Amino acid sequence: MRELSLHILDIVQNSIAADADLIKLIIREDIAKNLLIIVIEDNGKGIESEDISRVVDPFVTSRKTREVGLGLSLFREASRRSKGDMKIESEPGKGTRITAYFEYNNIDRVPLGDIVGTIVALITTNPEIDFIYRHVYEGREFVFSTEEIKAELGDVSINEYPVLNWIEKNLNEELRDLYGGDL
Amino acid sequence: MKSLEELRELRSKVQKDLEMRSNSERPKIIIGMGTCGIAAGARKILKAVMKEIDKRGLDVIVTQTGCIGMCEKEPLLDVKMPGKDRVTYGNLTPADVKMIIVEHVINGNVVEDLAIARFDEGGN
Known InterPro entries for this protein (chain B) (predicted)? Predict the structure, then answer.
């Protein structure tokens, strides 16, 4: 994957396959500590503890754990390549949390890329799932929540094109403000 | 979250459009979003699909599926027209997406050069 946002799109697919209806994404950029942290948390069916070590190994993936596949091992590789690591916490019936750490300025760290494209793609194809996206940059932050948008929309679906276009525009503005002054 | 008023205005506009929409079955476009598909460019294809549908004001459902085992032909996209077979297209570029939407979704002709599989779903 050439962008971390593509890994995010991919890892969220596991949450969707695990029947989650609320998926949280946190991106934390802490330049002072030279750290980038990505957290993907869901309320899906979770992973049995004996399977947690298996899901990152591409060679033991069986039919039973097929919904996990290669994505997690690729994500872990991306973090380890940039002197970081990936952690999986899960409780059957409650959900799963994936945390990936990256050395911020590491030359082998792939860029974050089109994170807005990832969020919009997820909402377009999964209007029934709620997403919360929180982005922290140098102590500033913003939170985007589909629950909040759905409350405004009432009976209008969140994946109608005018709404998707609004979300895209809004997220781009939020990100620009978040990075504002530093770019 | 900013400009929620804008969203309220959008809501009433979309509601009016929805009233005009017919109740007949809508065409469906399904994007392959497995790890393989995403690595091969599925997000770019989805973006192209949305741009084209939005530009032409089409009433189409866009949805996703996981890996369907044709990874070497990723990125993949399926078109399911009401009452017709589901057709899978592969090795796609954003330019192909435009052709598929014009030829297949609007004109109803399968783009044979790009089609790699066809499933009989009994018109469902």
Answer: Thioredoxin-like_sf
- Please give the pLDDT value at position B124: 43
Task: Round to the nearest angstrom and report the end-to-end CA distance of chain A.
Answer: 25
Q: Which residue of B lies nearest to A175 if distances are taken between CA atoms?
A: B1
- Spatial CB neighbours of A77, under 8 Å, sequence gap ≥ 6: none
Query: Residue B51's domain is classified under what CATH number?
Result: 3.40.30.10
Mean pLDDT by 10 residues, chain A (183 residues): 95 94 98 97 93 78 58 93 96 96 96 97 96 95 95 92 94 93 56
Whether residue B7 is contained in a domain is answered as: no
Q: Domains plus CATH for chain A?
A: 4-179 (3.30.565.10)
Task: State the Cα–Cα distance between residues A25 and A11, nearest whole angstrom.
Answer: 11
Here the ipTM equals 0.89
Q: For residue B8, is it within any domain?
A: no
Closest CB to A163 among B14, B36, B66: B14
Residue A61, phi then psi, degrees to nearest 5: -60, 120
Per the structure, the count of domains in chain B is 1
- Contact predicate A29/A136, CB 8 Å: yes
| Of the partner residues A9, A125, A148, the one whose CB lies closest to the CB of residue B62 | A125
Q: Which domain holds residue B53?
A: 24-119
For position A64, what pLDDT does the model report?
Answer: 53
Closest-CA residue to B102 (of B49, B31, B32, B66)? B49
Contact A125 B18 (CB under 8 A): no
Residues of chain B with pLDDT under 70: 1-2, 121-124
- Position B2 scores a pLDDT of 63
Is the CB of A69 less than 8 angstroms away from the CB of B14? no
Which pLDDT score, from 0 to 100, does residue B123 have? 47
Nearest Cα neighbor of B116 from B83, B81, B72 is: B72
